Amino acid sequence: MIKFYNLYEKEFEQLDGRLITTWLKSVVKSENKSIGKISVIFVDDNYLLDVNIKYLKHNYFTDIITFNYNQGLNISGDLYISIDTIKSNAEFYDVNFKNELVRVIVHGVLHLLGYNDSNDGEQIVMREKEDFYLNRLFNDRTEV
User: Fold this and answer.
1) Domains observed in the chain
2) Which tens digit of pLDDT belongs to each residue from 32-87?
3) What's the rounded Cα separation, in Å, for the pair 60 and 50?
4) Residue 84 CB neighbour total at 10 angstroms
């Protein structure tokens, strides 16, 4: 089960929840795992900074924090995503906001699937996986 929670107090372009849920299920299935409970929580920069400081002891802004609650092949976790940072990154990289948002969502799911991005080699693999699954999502469309 994948659920979306909006704790962000400003307006932002919403995703098609059904489309994203179906896509994420296919991502997880392609990695030979199954969906447990994944919560995607949209927040602002300050909320995510507080989470980063409190739970990870990191004092900096980020786009996503993933908490992994996996049990065996059952993928579960919380994905906290800063809409503020997604907006900034979309502008900086000159990409559509929704496209940047789904990139970050799949990035979090890939973390749940066991992929990391702690070093250059892992970052390359992570980016390749992101691109692979995004290409599947955008097969016949330019945005979601």
Assistant:
1) 2-137 (3.40.390.30)
2) 999 999 999 999 999 999 999 999 999 999 999 999 999 999 999 999 999 999 99
3) 9
4) 19
In terms of Cα–Cα distance, which of 2, 28, 4 is closest to 15? Answer: 4
Using the structure block, give the residue that is written with the tokens 């489309």: 19
Which of these, 77, 124, 125, lies nearest to 105 by C-alpha position?
A: 77
Length of the chain: 144
Q: How far apart, in whole angstroms, are the C-alpha atoms of residue 60 and residue 80?
A: 14
Q: Provide the residue type at 54 as one letter.
A: K
pTM of the full structure: 0.95
| Residue that the structure tokens 């070093």 belong to | 119
How far, in Å, CA of 23 to CA of 139, rounded?
11
User: d(Cα 113, Cα 109) in Å, to the nearest integer?
Assistant: 6
- Per-residue HEC secondary structure of the chain comes to CEEEEECCCCCCCCCCHHHHHHHHHHHHHHCCCEEEEEEEEEECHHHHHHHHHHHHCCCCCCCEEEEECCECCEEEEEEEEEHHHHHHHHHHHCCCHHHHHHHHHHHHHHHHCCCCCCCHHHHHHHHHHHHHHHHHHCCCCCCC
Structure tokens at 92: 């900086």
